[in-house]
């Protein structure tokens, strides 16, 4: 997620310069051929303008759909933040008896392990995601999680070696961690660390965590339908291909205007492709690129809040945006 006040013009140009450059070359070539051969290559602007309006409406629909997916993902992780605090406060208050401080810490740490596992799982690549954008450097920074090598190391900080071995071969570690948490809560109830009513309250919160996880996985595993994204790309390309021909018709009255056609055509092409790129780069909120919901930073916020509830030591600092304004 980009967190500075505004995206600079230079960053926008660097991110989207190639459509403009190619548009100038393409339009300039057509205008030069038309002028050199004294052959009218224009088409009426009126029908082309209607196509442009249709493309703009379609791109608006696609961008709204992409934004809805991002905003829903952010609301889900806002729910995870709230439910995590709601779970941790009763843990601190309800658990009473021998070794209660160790048990509270165990439950809190296991919850952090669940958040860690879920965060890593949501960053595993899918075929429809923009995987290559993770490796492009400054304007598409690498902020993805290395699920295959880092997860077990991080989980070992929060759960026991036995529990880690128990879930090691499971395909969905986050689901299994919540199962372990539920079993542990039942065991504590059996040992009278709290009564039935409080055990049910905590179990209801486990249920809410499963719901939040399922909602996140729904967005992760179900892409914006490919027919919408593909058709948007193709109709934008068709319109941009025809733009120079339409502008040559508009500018054919004076010879000097024909040399403005390449720049103006490239500008129109750039605007439409930029709109398409914005929607395209925003449709997958957990793919590990620069327009993601910052689930790593959110996870760290949760960890800080709930570890402070048990007066834990060596609590990490919040994650800040990097020098380019990107927050993981």
Structure at a glance:
With 328 residues, this protein is mostly helical. It has helices at 9-37, 45-94, 100-122, 147-155, 161-167, 173-190, 196-221, 226-250, 261-280, 295-309.
Summary tags:
328 residues, mainly alpha, 10 helices
Can you walk through the features of this model?
The chain has 328 residues and is an all-alpha fold. Helices cover 68% and strands 0% of the residues. The protein has one domain (9-309). The protein has ten helices and no strands. It is elongated, with a radius of gyration of 27 Å. The protein starts with 8 loop residues before the first helix and ends in a 19-residue tail after the last helix. Residues 137-144 have low confidence and may be disordered.
Range of strand content: under 5%
General form: elongated
What is the β-strand count?
A: 0
- Percent helix, as a range, is 55-70%
| Main sheet: strands, sense, barrel | none
Order of SSEs? HHHHHHHHHH
Tally the helices: 10
Mean pLDDT: 86
- Total separate domains: 1
> Which residues sit in consecutive blocks of at least 5 with pLDDT less than 50?
137-144
Question: By helix and strand content, what is the structural category?
Answer: mainly alpha
């Amino acid at each position: 997620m980009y967190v500075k006040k505004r995206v600079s013009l230079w960053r926008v140009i660097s991110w989207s310069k190639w459509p403009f450059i190619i548009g100038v070359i393409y339009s300039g070539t057509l205008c030069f051929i038309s002028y050199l051969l004294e052959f009218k290559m224009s088409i009426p602007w009126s029908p082309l303008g209607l196509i442009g309006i249709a493309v703009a409406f379609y791109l608006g629909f696609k961008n709204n759909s992409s934004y809805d997916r991002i905003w829903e993902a952010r609301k889900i992780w806002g729910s995870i933040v709230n439910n995590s605090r709601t779970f941790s406060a009763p843990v601190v208050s309800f658990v009473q008896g021998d070794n209660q401080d160790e048990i509270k810490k165990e439950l809190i740490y296991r919850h952090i392990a669940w958040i860690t596992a879920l965060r890593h799982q949501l960053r595993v690549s899918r075929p429809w995601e923009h995987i290559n954008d993770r490796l492009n450097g400054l304007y598409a920074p690498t902020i993805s999680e290395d699920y295959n090598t880092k997860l077990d190391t991080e989980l070992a900080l929060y759960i026991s070696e036995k529990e880690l071995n128990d879930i090691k071969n499971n395909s969905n570690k986050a689901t299994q961690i919540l199962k372990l948490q539920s079993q542990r809560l039942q065991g504590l109830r059996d040992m009278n660390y709290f009564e039935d009513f409080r055990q049910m309250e905590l179990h209801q919160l486990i249920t809410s965590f499963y719901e939040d996880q399922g909602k996140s996985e729904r967005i992760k595993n179900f892409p914006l339908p490919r027919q919408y994204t593909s058709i948007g790309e193709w109709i934008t390309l068709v319109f941009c291909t025809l733009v120079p021909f339409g502008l040559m018709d508009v500018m054919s009255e004076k010879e000097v205007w024909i040399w403005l056609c390449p720049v103006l055509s490239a500008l129109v092409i750039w605007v439409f492709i930029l709109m398409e790129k914005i929607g395209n780069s925003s449709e997958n909120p957990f793919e590990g690129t620069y327009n993601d919901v910052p689930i790593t930073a959110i996870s760290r916020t949760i960890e800080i809040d709930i570890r402070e509830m048990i007066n834990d030591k060596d609590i990490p600092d919040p994650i800040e945006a990097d020098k380019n304004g990107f927050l993981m």
